[in-house]
Amino acid sequence: MTKFDLPGCRAKEAGRKYSAAKMALWLMPLLAVSIVLGCHRGSNSLQAAISIQPANLLMFAPLPAAAPADGITAEKVNLGRKLYFDTHLSDNNSISCNSCHDVANYGADKGHAVSIGHIGKPGGRNSPTVYNAGLQFVQFWDGRAPTLAAQASGPMMNPVEMGMSGTDAVLALLRTSPEYLSAFRNAYPAIKDPVTMDNATDAIAQFESRLLTPAPWDDYLRGNENALTADQKDGLRVFLRTGCAACHAGAGMGGNSYQKLGAFTDWPDQKSDTGRLALTHEARDAMYFKVPLLRNIDQTGPWFHNGQVTALEDAVRLMAQYQTGHELSSQDVGSIISFLHALTGPLPAEFAQAPAGAATQKASGNIKQGGAANTAAGKVE
User: Fold this and answer.
1) Residue 161 appears among annotated catalytic residues
2) Which of 48, 199, 236, 260 has the most other CB atoms within 10 Å of its CB?
């Protein structure tokens, strides 16, 4: 039987918001697949033995529908969108949240292993996509932020990323703008002085929570069996057979747990990034990372925490080898990738571009030095 690090084994530490009953519903189909594997490993009948009927895929869930953004909620979303694109929130007015999480390119810094910060220094980890990020149980690769709002302020004050000297510098900038003063009052009318860091990060989180990408996979899970092609269905069978769903489940197809990179076989690089160990300083957290989302995965390369894998085929093959102990054939890799394509949905047109008048200068390698920033190395993403 394949060795799995099943979802929920770190649940107490992670503070998972899933009940034992819901976890049991996830695990039952996985255990059924494991039993099939034990009885039919290597058999040509294996594919047929794995049920992919939507009603049986209880470890997955379609994307939730976003509530309509109207009234005060719409004001918060609009404010958050403006803040997200504003390069003035970096020390030298050079980059914004969108610079490293480009909503026009599926929310990632597409094509870059790591992002470049406000003074031209590279970050320490690959910038994850912001699309569907609100589905995750924590944010950042090491899970150091519990919510989207908690994550939003980190890059502003990170010396490598946006380099602001502190919350006072951010708030001083916002309070000098009549446009921002009005927007904060409209979004938080019950608060006497609404220009606060908590409100700024809440607004950004409200905007980011709208960045959902419904895909053919969601239609399939809701019962439309024609939503996937025959090749994608074959890929789903291989995905299940290989054990990928042990970590990549739920609505986000991941983002629900911490897992050890190299659960079946030790990952080759145990030194350059030790995952949560650097955050918790507990030996048991060595090489543990938050499981990334698989939604839009074919659009968000390069892959892994360090961005060193530039071909999706290699990413699939490595994950199977090191996480589940499977040496996949080229055909199986291709089948899984066919399935992964079904997880990609169109970008929301109303949010996948900068608001009118936004300052959106993109960072480059020759950015001028910022005057107030501490340029010591910081862990990015």
Assistant:
1) yes
2) 236
